[in-house]
Specification:
Elements (H helix, E strand, L loop, with lengths): L3 E9 L2 H11 E6 L4 E6 L9 H4 L21 H9 L7 E9 L2 E9 L4 H10 L4 E8 L4 E8 L2 E8 L2 H6 L6 H14 L2 H6 L1 E2 L5 E2 L2 H10 L3 H21 L14 H4 L3 H8 L7 H16 L8 H16 L3 H13 L9 H23 L11
Parallel strand pairs: 8-10
Antiparallel strand pairs: 1-5, 1-6, 2-3, 4-5, 6-7, 7-8, 9-10
């Protein structure tokens, strides 16, 4: 069964070079090994297979009979692509996420592995382009980041974190892209390769926690605080509600203080019963999603609040009545203003409470006494 590596890439440059890249690399792929025929990012446009290798594509299966002289009994096309592309497959599932005359953002899948040699060839063929990419490799627990600049490609890999997984998402604020580019430029310097651990694939092995801290320094403090607060919410909810509790290698459970990145965030989450019940934590998870969706805005105003209230109403649809009443009893003990006349009144009060909680969180993250390093 094939595991798919997902890559998201962003390229910028002169309009004629961006157009040449589009015309050269995005074209119809007819690949009998994949059974595919669609417009995609065609790796053959950058690293073409020799004719004698292409002839072996007649068999879509990678394995030859046991008597084969090829390594591990693999077909020639499978071996050649793995060595010259970095993956045995051409790209699939190409999506253009954003495009302008001087900028293109796209994502695609490959079988098992990151196509490193393709990005090396891309940088060489299009020296006028600059850009970066992020890849997660199938079900592996590591990610790869890379930088295209001045005709060269440099990359790094490390254990995947939820922050790096976030960078693979779509519809990011332009400030995130610029911060990622700057952080990659800082990390992927020749001196880091000289003193760091470099694998056989010439990728620098890095700690993505340190990388994320550097990326946050490239962001506005308010954006960095929102992001890191939202990730701490995710960690808090996972620690409480995940079926497999967080644990160290020796099986001993992690303490919350070791998981949450900011002590101030942890104090806020645990104060006033904000995360006492599971429904409280689901509500905070909605706050986290809301913050990541509105990074470039002030979060104030009627429209963001209306959107958030609607998400809370959807949450109530799947909340059992007895669970909501149990929450209400504890909330009333905390002197939370609620209308307990009937279920409908309670649900309305819950949505009002959720909106108030969101505003409390916004005020917390804009306090002057919060250091910028809260994002670290």
């Amino acid at each position: 069964m094939t595991d798919w590596a997902f890559t998201r890439a962003i390229l910028s440059g002169p309009s004629d070079e961006i157009e040449r890249f589009r015309q050269t690399c995005f074209r119809m792929i007819s690949d009998t090994a994949q059974g595919a025929q669609d417009v995609g990012f065609d790796f053959e446009s950058l690293v073409a297979m020799p004719d004698e290798i292409r002839q072996t594509l007649a068999s879509p299966l990678p394995y030859k009979p046991p008597a084969s002289e090829q390594p591990f009994g693999l077909h020639e096309w499978f071996v050649w692509r793995s060595r010259n592309w970095g993956t045995p497959s051409n790209s699939t599932a190409l999506h253009i996420l954003e495009s302008s005359p001087t900028h293109i953002e796209f994502c695609f899948d490959t079988a098992w592995c990151f196509p490193q040699q393709i990005f090396v060839a891309l940088a060489r063929e299009f020296p006028g382009l600059t850009g970066h990419m992020v890849t997660t490799e199938g079900t592996a627990n590591f990610a790869i980041v890379g930088l295209v600049s001045e005709g060269t490609f440099t990359g790094a890999l490390g254990a995947i974190t939820r922050e790096i997984a976030f960078l693979l998402g779509t519809n990011h604020d332009p400030a995130i892209h610029e911060a990622l580019r700057r952080a990659l430029t800082n990390f992927l310097q020749p001196e880091n390769f000289a003193r760091g651990s470099v694998g056989s694939n010439d990728l620098l092995e890095i700690n993505f926690g340190e990388f994320w801290t550097d990326l946050c320094l490239q962001l506005e403090p308010r954006v960095a605080r929102r992001l890191n607060f939202s990730f701490d919410i995710d960690r808090y909810c996972d620690w409480h509600d995940n079926d497999e509790p967080w644990s160290e290698d020796n099986g001993a459970p992690h303490h919350l203080e070791d998981i949450i990145q900011s002590a101030a965030n942890l104090r806020f989450l645990e104060r006033d019963g904000r995360c006492y019940y599971k429904i409280d934590r689901k509500l905070m998870a909605l706050v986290a999603i809301d913050f990541r969706m509105h990074l470039g805005s002030t979060l104030a105003g009627e429209d963001p609040d209306r959107e958030f209230r609607l998400e809370v109403a959807y949450l109530l649809v799947d909340t059992p009545e007895d669970e909501l009443w149990e929450w209400a009893a504890h909330a009333a003990f905390r002197s939370t203003p609620l209308n307990l006349a009937d279920l409908g009144a309670l649900q309305t009060s819950f949505v009002d409470y959720a909106s108030h909680l969101r505003q409390e969180t916004i005020r917390f993250l804009t306090r002057d006494d919060l250091p910028t390093s809260i994002a670290a």
